[in-house]
């Protein structure tokens, strides 16, 4: 369902700005002073010049400028579930009981509702400082489990949603075939997810030129080891690599202890151990969650160059457990963050939750600070931008991640007039206040994505219409999914 654009949104979508001057900007090597940022009509940085004076006529940022944060794991339709599972329905609630409502929602959502929910979500993401999203998309078919006349119908809804909002998109169609290890047949609740391997490769062929036109990245997501049998995983990876050797590959793995136990019973190996022994995992992979690994799995997985896709607020919401980030970093591992089920849509809050989970696990403070970056919010932002760009498949050859020449012009300006930022003298302290003292208030002032100004005064130009459409779609879904 295409939504009309306001005149302001049309202007920002068709007239990309070409420069911004920032007194403080967070570059890949750390904070820099008096930075001139320039980009071309395609929305890519052409110059990042510290130590400059503001040229006449160039817009000046009112506060510190950050690179936009990639959101490396999203199930857009699950935003419609927000707040609906926060009650005890069984003697011991867990991910597995939460999943029943998710299946009801997935079974009922229409293409029009999916597009409305995704558009509203992507607008929220931009307002919260995300500028790229990796959409882990597994609802493929109609409510009866049959293919639409156009097999790409629901993927196209997500492409349109991203285009309307103006967020960068990495589309990851999900391969899903079984309900458990050893080829257990899928359940009725999974009927809309199921695809043969050849069908998936055909879908990727169909989507590739459409993604290229929009500037979206296309990859593949084998859902999990329990949902993709070994032969299908091997064939899908071979087919993908024949189409695009650099395509990103994302997989849920070792999220739940129950999954680890089931994998051990099936194969005699833990999930990450099995994957590393049976697939050529490399820097194009994102291991989503990977919460429950042993010491050898941490070491071996980090050595592949794969990114750990951490979703702190969802993992906390579902009671998954705590990723041992200190051990991962000691092994040289890379990481990024995602909002997953969208219990929270706030880039700063994902970083806060990640640091706080490590503090609780280690009983220490400022765990994720580094020798080079002692301010933990600065260190985390740089790491999440770098790992997120790698997992998104958006790193250009020879370019770093974030605010550097050759990369997409994705940037976030903090509001220096925000009550918690006023009176602070350094950008490090301002970013720390944004991440750790926001009290759910956003200190984001403006956001550019692909060189186009999408958010001003903390609000997206399409905010009102996107949210109205989201509310309407959510009400319809709730009416159709009540038990």
Structure description:
InterPro entries: Amidohydro-rel (IPR006680), HutF (IPR010252), Metal-dep_hydrolase_composite (IPR011059), Metal_Hydrolase (IPR032466), Metallo-dep_hydrolases (IPR051607). Keywords: Hydrolase, Metal-binding, Zinc. Its cofactor is Zn(2+). This is N-formimino-L-glutamate deiminase. GO terms for molecular function: deaminase activity; metal ion binding. The protein is α/β, with parallel strands linked by helices and 483 residues long. The protein has a domain of 324 residues: Alpha-Beta Barrel (TIM Barrel). It contains 15 helices and 17 strands. Strands 4-14-15-16-17 form a five-stranded antiparallel beta sheet. Helix 3 crosses helix 15. The chain is globular, with a radius of gyration of 21 Å.
């Amino acid at each position: 369902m295409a939504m009309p654009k306001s005149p302001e949104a049309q202007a920002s979508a068709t007239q990309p700005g070409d420069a911004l001057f920032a007194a403080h900007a967070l570059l890949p090597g750390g904070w820099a002073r008096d930075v001139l940022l320039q980009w071309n009509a395609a929305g890519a940085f052409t110059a990042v010049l510290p130590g400059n004076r503001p040229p006449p006529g160039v817009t000046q940022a009112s506060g510190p400028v950050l690179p936009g944060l990639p959101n490396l794991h999203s199930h857009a339709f699950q935003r419609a579930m927000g707040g609906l599972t926060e009650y005890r329905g069984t003697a011991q609630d867990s991910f597995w009981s939460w999943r029943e409502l998710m299946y009801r929602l997935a079974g009922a959502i229409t293409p029009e509702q999916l597009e409305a929910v995704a558009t509203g979500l992507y607008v929220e993401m931009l307002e919260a400082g995300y500028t790229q999203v990796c959409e882990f998309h597994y609802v493929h078919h109609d409510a009866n489990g049959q293919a639409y006349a156009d097999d790409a119908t629901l993927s196209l809804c997500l492409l349109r949603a991203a285009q309307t909002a103006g967020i960068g998109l990495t589309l990851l169609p999900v391969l899903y075939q079984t309900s458990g290890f050893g080829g257990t047949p899928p359940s009725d609740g999974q009927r809309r997810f199921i695809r043969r391997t050849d069908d998936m490769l055909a879908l990727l062929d169909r989507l590739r030129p459409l993604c290229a036109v929009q500037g979206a990245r296309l990859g593949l997501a084998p859902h999990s080891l329990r949902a993709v049998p070994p032969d299908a995983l091997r064939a899908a990876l071979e087919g993908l690599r024949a189409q695009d050797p650099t395509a990103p590959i994302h997989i849920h793995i070792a999220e739940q202890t129950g999954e680890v136990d089931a994998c051990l019973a099936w194969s005699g190996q833990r999930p990450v151990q099995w994957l590393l022994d049976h697939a050529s995992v490399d820097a194009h992979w994102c291991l989503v969650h990977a919460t429950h690994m042993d010491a050898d799995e941490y070491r071996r997985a980090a050595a592949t160059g794969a990114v750990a896709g951490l979703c702190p607020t969802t993992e906390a919401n579902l009671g998954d457990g705590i990723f041992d980030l200190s051990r991962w970093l000691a092994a040289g591992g890379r990481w990024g963050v995602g909002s997953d089920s969208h219990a929270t849509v706030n880039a700063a809050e994902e970083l806060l939750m990640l640091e706080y989970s490590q503090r609780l696990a280690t009983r220490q403070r400022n765990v994720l600070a580094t020798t080079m970056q002692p301010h933990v919010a600065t260190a985390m932002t740089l790491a999440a931008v770098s790992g997120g760009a790698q997992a998104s498949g958006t790193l250009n050859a020879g370019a770093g991640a974030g605010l550097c020449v050759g990369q997409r012009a994705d940037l976030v300006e903090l509001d220096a007039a925000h009550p918690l930022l006023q009176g602070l003298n350094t950008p490090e302290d301002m970013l720390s206040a944004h991440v750790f003292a926001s009290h759910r208030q956003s200190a984001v002032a403006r956001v550019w994505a692909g060189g186009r100004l999408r958010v001003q005064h903390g609000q997206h130009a399409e905010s009102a219409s996107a949210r109205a459409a989201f509310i309407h779609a959510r009400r319809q879904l709730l009416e159709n999914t009540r038990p």
